[in-house]
Input
Amino acid sequence: MIKRVQRSRTEGPARSKTDFGKLKLVGVGAFVALLWIALWTRAAYVQLWQGPKLERMASKQNLAAEFELGERGRVYARNGALLATSVESKSVYVTPIEVDNVAKTAQTLARILGLSAKSVEHDLSSKKGFVWVKRQIGDAESQAVIAAAMPGVHLTNEFRRMYPNRHEAGQVLGFVGVDGKGLEGVEQQFEDRMAGGQAQFVVQRDASGRRLYLDAQGREMNIRGQDVRLTIDTVVQDAAELALAEAVNKYNGRSGVAIVVKVDTGEILALAHYPYFNPNTYSESKPAVRRNRSAVDIYEPGSVMKPFVFAAALEDKVIDANKVIDCENGKWNLRGKLIRDTHPYRWLSANRVLRYSSNIGSAKIGLALGAKPYYNYLRKLGFGERPGLSIPSESPGMLRQPKEWSEVDLANISFGQGVGVTGLQLAKAFLVLGNKGMTKPLRLVADPPQEDVPASERVFSERTVSTVLSMMREVVEEDGTGKVARIPGVSMAGKTGTAQKASGGTYGTGIVASFVGMVPGDKPEFLFLVSVDEPTPVSFGGIVCAPAVRDIAIKTLSYYGRLPEGKGAPQQDQAEYSMKEKTTQAPTAVAGASVPNLAGLPIRRALEVLGKRGVVPSLKGSGMVVTAQRPAPGENWPDTQSNGKDESFILWLGQGERENR
Amino acid sequence: MKGWALGVITVACTLLLSLSSVWLNIERMDLAYDINKLEKDLAGRMSLAAKLELERNNLLSPYRLKRLASMYNLEPVGPGQMRLMYKPEGAPQEPVANSTTDN
Output
């Protein structure tokens, strides 16, 4: 009973409290539920309804799309020398609105960049949001701009095209504009291949604006342009440019072209032009200087064309080498047109007609051959069509249809007047003679390989070519017009050209002198062509151009190890004696029973001493003077015949006195 | 009891995963900064290498070598002055200068 009373006492007030608590719980639960629902609703609203918009806004804040431009492909020579490359350089631009003190900033920028303060101040006062001040500046200048820390002055990276060999092969290479686009020459020809690609990728920016790469999007792409390798050899090119410059300057010529071709492959080893063009400073040169004259300029070649009329006539059996031709004592009237020879001759055999370059004799051979056959041969030789090197603005020359040729025209064309050719066309035609009568395309680019190479075609028989080459050898080796080009011990087949320039429908006083030489004269390996425009006072190809061909040929042959080797003891020239006097020890070393002391000797002399023992040393270090050697002086000679690779004889080289000074 | 333990494990795992996620994010940002720095370093070195290669080619260009040669009264070889001390097998179709050892 007591228990029941107690339970009833305790149960009574408890029931009333539970009811109130439940209410509170329900209230709190409802509040939490509402809050929860509100949060979820808000989250859903933000994420589902406003999500795309907010995502776009956020992306603008911390994500950015960036572009990256790839480096332009390089140009290499056949000997691995770098002819053109791109290096990163800075360009300066300003945001005028951010510039604090215009006058002071302008003065500082002008001093650093070598500009006029007035023009920089004008740039800084611009109302534009972005103004270039100077593009592609040097490293020292960019460091100075960074150090100056001028508000509103910014630097950006750009690629700058550089040509380490300066003017070498300048007209062949062409140049690249400030925006990185090839504008002339190989740079223009291979623009699609060499131009760097563009990659776009997304970067994340942090609070301080630093870029963080999110992924590899775009960066994995190869955006670097592809390289181009030319057949040009920088050593031969340099030899050609030097000899050409000397010929043009010595005879006051307006311009000149020199071409060297490797006969067995048709590869152009040198394509030189003068005046020089330096692509590093292309804006300082006139368009006429930048022109690739060998491919673009048409001129009447003159007597240098005569070997072709001889070859055609021999091939068609119109003449033979011994046929005697009346050269009319130097003056011949053909249908009212007077044809002259430089020197009067009466009766000359065919080979002498070529040797003495008789216009009258050649005209008679051409007339005997006929217009149509000669035209066909000229077409087969490549005249009247582009040489196929795909050089921009390559000219097809000028060769009229034979039906338009009068008798006088045929006579003129026989000695190279009345026909327009380019230097490359001429080289291509002579390549047929060098290549045993078969056509061979000229090549200027080794990589990428040329597509659609025309099939080789026979133009002349080997017998005909052999006869013509024999006649051309007489031009150089006998008392012909090209004897100045003679190189002792080297057989050369050549032909001179001294052509009048047509101007305003008539021939003026201007002359184009030229000389073509092929070495060796019986089985040519190298073809050399030099032409000089308007040389004065002397204008004969045999005097103006033949020495240049000789010079180029000597350097090319020595470079290829083709010059005839000296016999007997080497003769020491004056230059070497003068050099010996300046060495610390007298070069008395001789190849005796034991190893001599070579220290202090010029490397050239040391090699000669060792060469007598058949030893080719291994060279270490750089310099022109021997500083140490192994084996030491007085020791026995090495057992084996050293070839320079087994290091049985080592010479250490150092700097000479002159260089140290 | 089993339900309580499962709950604790779930909470612990969630906590662990959350912490891992935070840690990974921090690491990712660190790596991104490092990569950024290394990429800048690489770009700088590549740019320098390109400039050095340009300089090397300029120093080896014929006009530079000619200037150096003239200091020593060296001039191109003439006919009869050349001696080939080492001839590679077969006729040298390529320049002899290319067949020498580059020291």
Remarks:
- Residues 1-5, 568-589, 657-661 of chain A have pLDDT under 50 and may be disordered.
- Chain A has four domains: 2-49, 66-228, 236-559, 582-660.
- The CA atoms of residues 263 and 431 of chain A lie 6 Å apart.
- Chain A is about 35% helix and 20% strand.
